[in-house]
User: Fold this.
Amino acid sequence: MSHEGDYTYNFGLLSPNWCDSARTGIESLVIGLTCTFSGLDSCGHEAYVTKYIDGTTGFDPCISLDYLSENIETISNAYANECNWFENLKNQVSGSIDCSVPVTGVSFTVNPTPNT
Assistant:
């Protein structure tokens, strides 16, 4: 089945975790990515489907907040690529887009209700 439309990706969650209570560095980053499809399904109906995934990447040794801020795009995209999120989310969204498959040429029998 095919569909026509656009897939867009958005990092909707970027949440750093400090190494210690003195906030001397960042030890990990929670990253959340959303994939959205907007367009037509294979039956020509409008479709809008969104899927989300998140995970945590770590830094050993800890990194500075300045380093994280300057490299957030690179770090986020590298993590998403390593986890294969772009392809996985697109496949999940794509599988949710298409209209129902019609049931034709299939027969079934209804068993009679047993006597009680």
In short: Helices lie at 65-82, 85-97. DSSP finds two helices and three strands in the chain. The chain has one domain: 4-97. Residues 23 and 61 are 14 Å apart (CA to CA).
